[in-house]
Each structure stands twice: as structure tokens, then as C-alpha cells.
């Protein structure tokens, strides 16, 4: 069976689609067969990323390793039986289509609570939650006191992941490996950064996730989106010398893939 990676939280602007595209492309470039789904049916940032890539490669006559992006199939409402949910059926049909030919299926979730996102989390073998290094984003996981030091209790997203874990346990499936990524961390040793680190480590022990570094804020990510490219594609499109920022970003991606500890993945880029 394909290993399902779900990239999700319930807040926009955390870098989910950028993270999804780079993880999917990195796995494809390492020789794995990767299927991809975008559950944000309105904005479809990840879907647009995949479309831009296909279009750019076709126009330039290039063949680069890529994930196979798949739209959720339409379901005839008349065929839905009492008690069934049409969104559940659409997601199940998409996963069933991709699974026979894929090593990994990556699912990018919207930055809000939806039925599709809820069901996708219950399918996750690995859950990746990008989080900006801010207590505004941390509030999605847990509530803290005014000093940002004492955790008062879990928040809405953590409760949703807990419910997904319960569903998997009832179905006899392996537990979700939950990895929270600290995105946009500054290089300076700021008080907020230190407090965030302590709060995440404390919460990780309480509700069961691993903490790993994500991506710093870099202009290159915004520049690559219109062509659907990733950091790993630069040399293939003629960039002979990477600048210091690009080299650092590649290292961040390498460390991220290592931290995910996915099955049968040997980081070799």
C-alpha cells in the first residue's frame, strides 16, 4: 500500500502548498512514484503549482521527475446512499486510483476545517504540520498563558488530530507519525523563538508529535511558483551556480526529508 503523507493545519499562510510541492518533487527525484491531491477545492494552490509545472516543462520540452497530480473525481449525487458522504466518496475514489501505482500519496489540505481535511487526516501515515514560528500559529495547537510559558490546553486542530488517531486505532491501523515543522524561524536568538521552542517541546511530549525545522522565508519560493519548479530543479533549467540562499534552502529541504523518516527513503540530493 502507498504511504500517505498529509500536509495540514487549519491556518492559511503557513507554507503548506510550498512544503507539499517540495516534498512530492524530492521523493519523485529520488525515484519514488508519487501521487498528489489538493483538497482545497476553492484556491487549489498546490494544484496550480502542479499545473504550472506541467505547462512549463511542456513548453520547454523538458522531462523532470514529478508527482502525478490527480483531481478529485466527481460523484453522481444520485448514487450516494443514505448515510454516505459525497466528499468521503470522492477522496476514497481518488486514493484508490493512485494507490496501485504509487509509493507515496501526498495530500495537501486547506487552511480551514472541512470534511475532506478531517477524513484525510484519518488516512495519514505521516502528518506534516507546517507552523510559522509565532504564538499566533501556536494557538492552533494549544492555548498558552499570557507569558507564553504555560500550556492551558489543546486547541481545535490538536483535537481534530486526536479524533483522527482514534479512528485509525479503531480500524487497526498504525498510529499517525505527526511531525510539526517550524517555518520562518529567524537566525537571531530572540526571546520569542526560545519561548516557542520550549512551548513546542512541552506540547510535543503531552500530545505526541515530533518537532523538526522547516523552511526559512526565501524569495526563491515565490519566484518558482509560476513555473511550478522547486529548488531541486534549478540546475536542470540552466542555473549553473546556486547562490548562498539557494544552497541553504536545499540543505533545509534535505534535512526536512531526513526528519520525516519516510519508509525506504534514502536522501540522495
TrEMBL record:
Gene3D superfamilies found in the cross-reference section: P-loop containing nucleotide triphosphate hydrolases
InterPro entries given in the database record: DNA_Partitioning_ATPase, MipZ, P-loop_NTPase
A Pfam short name: MipZ
Protein name: ParA-like protein
